[in-house]
Amino acid sequence: SSRPCRALAPPGLVPRPAPRARPERAMALLATKPPVVYCIGLNYRTHAKESGMAEPKYPVVFIKPPGSIIGPGEKIVIPAVCHPEEIDYEAELAVVIGKAARNVPEDKALEYVAGYTVGNDVSARRWQLAHGGGQWCFGKGFDTFCPLGPRLVPAAEIPDPNNLDICCAVNGQMLQKSNTKDMIFSVKKIISFLSQGTTLEPGTVILTGTPEGVGAARKPPVFLKPGDSVTVAIESIGELTNPVVADTPASAL
């Protein structure tokens, strides 16, 4: 298969994929609001290193509300409550669960996947790290902070989700470039872990972590601002582009 993240060339990061047969059931799972969006933090070795944090012994789990999901081309809205210099991008492989999974063994975990898509774990770093009380959900769960798309690729078309090029560009400048094989916890390990004692319902979305190159870790830092365009691309799936705008109402905080 092609390795689309190796070069940034017009009109985008990834050649438009040829149309393929996509099961209606799998597409419906992406089209409707999922019951929950699980996210895994610090799941790439190089990202943990750039963050100055030790590699976790267990997956770092947090949740985004389903209401934070937007699609390709929709606007990422910077809330008025956020500081102008704190909104960050995070390129992520998103997994969509296809059938109820509970206490799933690791070697069977991929059998429960309906498909894969591209995600962007948009993050307000000040609210995530300084004012979140030690919890990440508020700073990562604002409206529009979970772009997903452009399509759901059936699991059968991606036999190994841990060997995909992944990248992110802001205004055409490549800022993240890696491969999902750098994950600390593989996709099947994540699914197995999350399913222990907990039923993962069909439609559940799992964001599997981001590689190195996030804006907050760069020197100088790079944060999203109104007028920016951010594109995340993953091999064999496609590219997800969203414009960035500022919210208009004033904040009560």
Kindly describe this structure.
The structure is a single chain. By secondary structure, the chain is of the alpha+beta class. It is 13% helix and 29% strand. The chain contains 5 helices and 14 strands. It has helices at 24-31, 45-50, 125-130, 137-140, 187-194, and strands at 37-41, 60-64, 69-70, 76-78, 87-88, 91-97, 113-120, 123-124, 146-154, 165-170, 173-179, 205-207, 229-234, 238-246. A 7-stranded mixed β-sheet has the order 2-1-12-6-7-9-3, sandwiched between helices. The protein starts with 23 loop residues before the first helix and ends in a 7-residue tail after the last strand. Mean pLDDT is 84; it is low at 7-27.
SSE blueprint and pairings:
Layout: H1 24-31, E1 37-41, H2 45-50, E2 60-64, E3 69-70, E4 76-78, E5 87-88, E6 91-97, E7 113-120, E8 123-124, H3 125-130, H4 137-140, E9 146-154, E10 165-170, E11 173-179, H5 187-194, E12 205-207, E13 229-234, E14 238-246
Parallel strand pairs: 1-12, 3-9, 4-14
Antiparallel strand pairs: 1-2, 5-8, 6-7, 6-12, 7-9, 10-11, 10-13, 13-14
